[in-house]
Amino acid sequence: MRIVFYLKKFYLFIGVLILWISPAYGQDLSIGLEDLRIEQRVDGGFHLFIRKKPDVSSVLLTESTRDPALREDNFAYRDPDWNPVNGDEVRVLNGRPISRDQQLWSLIDSSPENHPELGEAFHIYIPYILNFGSESSRHGEVYVVNGTYFNIRAFSLPFADYRGRFKDNPYILEVTQKPLEGPPEGNYMKDTVDAFTKIAAEGNGELVWSTGHEDLVDKIKAVLDKEQGRSLDLVLCLDTTSSMRDDIDPVRKGLIPMLEQTISKYRDFRIGMVLYKDYFDEYLNRTVPFTRDFTVFQRSLNAITVSGGRDIPEAIYEALYEGAVKFPWEGDTRLLILIGDAPPHARQRGKISKAMVDEAVAKQGLKVYTISLPQ
């Protein structure tokens, strides 16, 4: 899916309190919609560009609400990890730079860069998970999705230095999905194709193009027709996020009839499945164990529900690793078929790395095919 992002300005009133932290007399520290561009990339987050205005010397991403009694701080957001966009930016607090030894990666920029539409612009990288506060005070994390509130605090001095003027510019993140175009025909996402091509090549398999619900089962059959052996173990790693809604039903209805006709050349055949979504969805992955009983497997197919997928990448490496290590592989031919329309996370999100997947696939002697679906 291609996801296009919009920022919507909002104002918060509590009694007579409006969400401006400090007056900025004689200086224009306002950030309007026309000053912003935001996009989601497959590096694991959003990229926010803010036009450099004459009076704005730095910007800082913070919470967008404030305690009306002014007894609680309005905290800056932080990346849990260093990132190459803002990780080396200096932030001044109470007149002193925050030491990098503290590893507090504020989402701050004092170093504008060239932007094709905005001209000079600040660049803030927004990870999907934001941290705020500290253990000695109010603290927590925010998962950035459609409808997330955040605030762009503009400063007259560099380094988000509060000794100068500053002003808050609160926004809501709004998400609209639009189709992508790509080869060979239809709306294929380039990042998905690139990642699936590499996964298949490193797994001694092939990338297979599917136009979607019309030929997905036929493409699975084409993979099986390529393989030979006395026994076959097959695991499908299947994306079950919302964008797969049109593709699951054909698998549900047509997979077993196709298998009944195709597997006669094998003395023994077992099939299993890994259903995957993403972090903070209903589940990360679910395993359907090996079975020779098509009636049992059909019940698992019938129980699949599609939902979630609030960002572009999905937990693909996690699903492949589950497929490699959670099944008792024994067949002469051992196939792992990845089916989806979105790429894996470019930055590792959890414990499972691509290197772990590669090692597990090689250890089990698996052949990995990937089937890329359009949006």
Report on this model:
- The chain is an alpha+beta fold.
- It folds into 2 domains: 177 residues, no CATH class; 183 residues, Rossmann fold (3-Layer(aba) Sandwich).
- Helix content is 19%, strand content 33%.
- It is built from 6 helices and 23 strands.
- A 6-stranded mixed β-sheet has the order 18-23-22-19-20-21, with helices on both faces. A 5-stranded antiparallel β-sheet has the order 1-17-16-6-11, with no helix packed on it. A 4-stranded antiparallel β-sheet has the order 4-5-13-12, with no helix packed on it.
- The longest helix has 18 residues.
- The protein is elongated.
- It starts with a strand and ends with a strand.
- About 4% of the residues have low confidence.
CATH topology of the largest domain: Rossmann fold
List the uncertain runs. 11-24
Q: Strand order, biggest sheet?
A: 18-23-22-19-20-21
Task: Give a count of the beta strands, DSSP E runs of length 2 or more.
Answer: 23
Q: H/E element string?
A: EEEEEEEEEEEEEEEEEHEHEHEEHHEHE
Any idea of the CATH class of the largest domain?
A: Alpha Beta
Structural class: alpha+beta
Give the biggest beta sheet. Answer: 6 strands, mixed
* Individual helix count: 6
Proportion of helical residues: 10-25%
Approximately what portion of the residues adopt beta-strand conformation?
25-35%
**Shape descriptor:** elongated
Q: Determine the mean pLDDT.
A: 88
What is the total domain count?
2
- Straight-line N-to-C gap: 5 Å
The CATH architecture designation of the largest domain is 3-Layer(aba) Sandwich
